[in-house]
Specification:
The complex is a heterodimer of chains A (116) and B (114). Chain A is an all-beta fold and 116 residues long. Chain A is built from no helices and twelve strands. In chain A, the strands form three sheets. In chain A, strands 2, 5, 6, 10, 11 and 12 form a six-stranded mixed beta sheet that branches. In chain A, strands 3-9-8-7 form a four-stranded antiparallel beta sheet, with no helix packed on it. In chain A, a hairpin with a 5-residue loop joins strand 7 and strand 8. The radius of gyration of chain A is 14 Å and the shape is globular. The radius of gyration of chain B is 13 Å and the shape is globular. In chain B, strand 7 and strand 8 form a beta hairpin. Chain B starts with a strand and ends with a strand. In chain B, the strands form two sheets. In chain B, strands 2, 4, 5, 6, 9, 10 and 11 form a seven-stranded mixed beta sheet that branches. Chain B has no helices and eleven strands. In chain B, 34% of the residues are buried. Classes of the chains: A mainly beta (116), B mainly beta (114). The interface between A and B is medium-sized, with 23 and 25 residues.
Chain lengths: 116, 114
Amino acid sequence: AQSVSQHNHHVILSEAASLELGCNYSYGGTVNLFWYVQYPGQHLQLLLKYFSGDPLVKGIKGFEAEFIKSKFSFNLRKPSVQWSDTAEYFCAVMGALYNQGGKLIFGQGTELSVKP
Amino acid sequence: DTAVSQTPKYLVTQMGNDKSIKCEQNLGHDTMYWYKQDSKKFLKIMFSYNNKELIINETVPNRFSPKSPDKAHLNLHINSLELGDSAVYFCASSQADRTNYGYTFGSGTRLTVV
């Protein structure tokens, strides 16, 4: 079955703390991987994506993620969080083949709360 | 200019009514989608269209009917609304050629059925 699992439902950090959000997926075949962020009351914005090549991917706002194929993981990291990073974070997987229709399969989301 | 725009932003309606949500994208993308985000913020695809052709139709009740008059528009019509239909509905669009990735979401329509 195709699925994405995010390890943490709710993470609370103080400003300047380091962040790592876990994501594991189950999917038969080659995948593309994504992290999206949803600020309160807003739409989803792409943080970063992995299609191929260097498994360490850098995104916007200082976020990065590492694809570890052997572990089916795509964890999100940020060395020092800010209060403005408070949001919901979604990991997602998509089949890499064109004929798979571009369907994104999302994890259940991780709510990040950053205390000033 | 808004890349993917949805209307209305909020929709409150009674059970049994029929309602529509409209979506338009000005990115020139070939594929458009509807996703549903439930009260626990779980996101799941409902439909996708590529150049007006239905590509993905997940297990969605027949009361939901998407319509794509052209590749820039994908509307969602819902018949006989039920309480469980209350959710946020996101439209999205993407390039078919995902080497030039452009998967963009609209701002969402919060549907409340009372």
